[in-house]
Write a structure and sequence with these properties.
The protein is α/β, with parallel strands linked by helices. It is built from 10 helices and 8 strands. The chain starts with a strand and ends in a 31-residue tail after the last strand. It binds adenosine monophosphate and manganese (II) ion (3 copies). The site of one manganese (II) ion has 5 residues, from loops. The site of adenosine monophosphate has 12 residues, from helix 6 and helix 7.
Length: 278
């Protein structure tokens, strides 16, 4: 039986634009049967998400997307099925969040030097949760002010990996992130691997290390992947024996490449990360 599953989405608790309950309603209206809210580095939306899902008769999995630095780049690791009250996970996420305000001020300084004044306050106006101020909020400000015509241009010119206004921080290590997630009873999944700029050797090292640390899943279908990357990362799942995950990575109706619930099915020979959850 094919069920409609979407295990990656963002609310105003991080860099999405809808409340957790609004996302639940949108997911349900789009036919989603099993859904996870996965805000960046923050679990405080999960209770509202669960309550809204349950009242709609939609199955729900708790989730979070953890920021990690690996090989001098930022990668994201999804924690699915975690106990959102787990003290170790919450302490770890609090540590990650602590660096965001300082980093945002430095990004604003860099943008100012490049001729874009007042971006700290401008970005903050888009942030539902000041402690989760992110590049996405800066990107929305730059688009609103007419500096760039869309978010993709902002990341390509200013805020993407190795672009001039992207201030690098050390998030968590892969070992910490996987440890917190597994310690909280969850499954760790490498999010949107197709977005990372690693060599083939680095990718192999990442997957080996992730598996060794207790990581068990990989996102195969996501709004960040092309159809060719669905095939490529399905193959990685087979080679490494990873469970396969899928999620839209929905942030906003205006920005979505894939809406909630609009995902193609996983290849039928893969074991879904949710195989024993419903
Ligand atoms: P941060 O956590 O502050 O580093 O911001 C990362 C967020 O920026 C991601 O979660 C995405 O929502 C967004 N992002 C990163 N790269 C892109 C991109 N190329 N296009 C659009 N949004 C992006
Ligand atoms: Mn995001
Ligand atoms: Mn991500
Ligand atoms: Mn995401």
């Amino acid at each position: 039986m094919n069920i409609n599953v979407d295990l990656h989405s963002h609310s105003v608790v991080s860099d999405g634009v809808l409340a957790p309950a609004e996302l639940a309603a949108r997911a349900h209206a789009n036919g989603v049967q099993l859904w996870a809210l996965t805000d960046h580095d923050e679990l405080s939306g999960v209770a509202e998400a669960r309550q809204a899902a349950v009242s709609l008769g939609m199955s729900h999995v708790s989730g979070v997307e953890v920021s990690v630095t690996w090989g001098r780049q930022t990668i994201h690791v999804l924690g699915l099925g975690v106990d959102e009250a787990d003290p170790g996970l919450n302490a770890g996420l609090a540590e990650i969040r602590a660096g965001r305000i300082v980093r945002a001020k430095e990004m604003a300084d860099r943008l100012e030097a490049m001729g874009v004044p007042d971006s700290y306050d401008g970005a903050m106006k888009f942030a539902g949760n000041p402690l989760l101020i992110s590049r996405t909020h800066f990107a929305r400000f730059l688009v609103e002010q007419g500096y760039c015509k869309n978010m993709q241009v902002v990341f390509d010119k200013y805020l993407g990996e190795n672009k001039p206004a992207n201030v690098k921080v050390h998030w968590s290590t892969l070992e910490q992130a996987v440890g917190w997630i597994v310690g909280a009873g969850g499954r760790a999944a490498i999010a949107h691997p197709g977005r990372y700029n690693y060599s083939a050797m680095q990718f192999d090292a990442l997957f080996d290390e992730f598996k060794e640390l207790g990581g068990t899943a990989i996102e195969v279908i996501t709004g960040s992947h092309t159809p060719a990357q669905y095939v490529q990362y399905a193959d990685v799942a087979r080679r490494y024996g990873f469970l396969a995950s899928c999620g839209s990575d929905f942030h906003s109706p205006a920005e979505a490449r894939l809406d909630l619930g609009e995902l193609p099915s996983l290849p039928s020979d893969l074991t879904p990360v949710w195989h024993d959850w419903i």
